[in-house]
Amino acid sequence: MRLPLTFLRLEKHHVKLANEGKGMAVKKRQKSLSQGRPPTSKPKERMTSQRSRTIIRTHHRLHKEYASAVRKGDTKLAASIAKAIEENGGLEVYQAASKQGQSKDRGGDSSKVLIDWLQGAHVLDRTKRTVIEDAAKSILRCLEVGALSTNNEISKYPKNIEMTRIDLNSQEMGIEKQDFMKRPLPASESDRFDIISLSLVLNYVPDPAQRGAMLKRVTQFLRHNDPSQKIDASVLPALFLVLPLPCVENSRYLNERVLLRIMTNLGFSLMNEKKTPKLCYYLFTLTGASNSTKIEKKKVRDGPAMNNFCVIVE
Ligand SMILES: C[S@@+](CC[C@H](N)C(=O)[O-])C[C@H]1O[C@@H](n2cnc3c(N)ncnc32)[C@H](O)[C@@H]1O
């Protein structure tokens, strides 16, 4: 029989009073077995934001140096940098540090912005967490490249958005370990996606030409516009791109004008953008074909505290 909570509280209070009244020492309650068991895992420690920033920066720097050593064929240097990457915790610790950046108290996960834009474009219903109207049959397919979690905002619409999550290093079930650059090209339309998310992934790629290749490759994985789609899909098929703000605002080789030129050349139109003090978010719709224009490394501005982030399209 379940006793009401108030009754239990009162009874506890009375027993305590009775024991005190008798001047008796309150007998220590026997601990349950589970309390006596040694913990199976240590509670997860939270990194300070300073520490996670240092880990992320060091990983990016070493990763770039490693790619450069490999490009030059300097195997000895590459091996010593690989060792330094491991000493910094490797990809796993880097991912843990990045994941902390997704926690609610540090701004939350970036897919919140994507959901907001899909709702604004009437692709998703704002209140019911469904695809709008009778389009519920049209399940959207989303490829999240660089996925660290299966619980992000974008994953909260399982009836309407079918998620495919990949990462170079899978952290949990539901995320496939796969390099997007090696994912087999779609054999048919059913291997393509309505939405591809590259959130803080492009800046992870150490080589400027590989970044351009990644953006180009996205166009091959997005579905082609299908006029028979029932949903108001004016923003689809779409690329959700998130970059650290300094990549666009403080680089010698990339500014927003150059980024937009690259995307336009690849066949994208800008639908939404948002900037916060740390990040910039873009929603691009694939509206046309790539015009195969090359974009080279070219200085667009200079300054002592600027970075060299760059995207080359070959
Ligand atoms: C900073 S984390 C981004 C995590 C998350 N998307 C976010 O917005 O916080 C970058 C992730 O991208 C992954 N990544 C980079 N290049 C990739 C590729 N070619 N294919 C799959 N994952 C990749 C890395 O393994 C890493 O986990």
Automatic annotation (TrEMBL):
Q: Where does S-adenosyl-L-methionine bind?
A: 146, 167
EC top class, in one word?
Answer: transferase
Q: Where is this chain's protein located in or outside the cell?
A: Nucleus, Nucleolus
User: SUPFAM superfamilies per the record?
Assistant: S-adenosyl-L-methionine-dependent methyltransferases
Positions in coiled-coil regions: none
Q: Specify the superkingdom.
A: Eukaryota
Q: What are the transmembrane regions?
A: none
Residue segments, region Disordered: 20-51
Q: Give the keywords, sorted.
A: Methyltransferase, Nucleus, S-adenosyl-L-methionine, Transferase
Query: What are its E.C. numbers?
Result: 2.1.1.-
- Family assignment from sequence similarity: Belongs to the BMT2 family.
- Per its database record, what is this protein's job? S-adenosyl-L-methionine-dependent methyltransferase that specifically methylates the N(1) position of an adenine present in helix 65 in 25S rRNA.
Q: Which PANTHER family match?
A: 25S RRNA (ADENINE(2142)-N(1))-METHYLTRANSFERASE (PTHR21008:SF1), S-ADENOSYLMETHIONINE SENSOR UPSTREAM OF MTORC1-RELATED (PTHR21008)
Q: What is the designated name of this protein?
A: 25S rRNA adenine-N(1) methyltransferase
- Annotated organism of origin: Paraconiothyrium brasiliense
Gene encoding this chain? BMT2
